[in-house]
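Final report, closing paragraph on structural work. Over the funding period we assembled a curated collection of sequence-structure pairs, and we close with a single example.
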Amino acid sequence: MKKNSDLKKIIKDDSIECDNLTINSLFREAIWNKYKDDLQLSEYEVDVTNEDAKRIWEKLQMYLLVYSLFQSVRKKVIRIVKYRTL
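Its predicted structure, as stored:
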């Protein structure tokens, strides 16, 4: 993930409007909103029989969100916690 200074540079260089220049999440949201319609996404098949497939999956896993369930003291309340593995 990009650091604060990197995000500020993108905001400045690309003339992206951002309401608050101190919060990284707002930087990311502004950048996303600017480019979300221009994304050129493609699907690729990866041969899982290839020896490199495991390494590719390990690299991809670093960017996936992980969800964990926690049961609180009260039996009826379950909390879902989302965090990055990085």
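The first helix runs from residue 4 to 13. The helical segments are 4-13, 24-35, 52-61. We thank the funder for supporting this effort.
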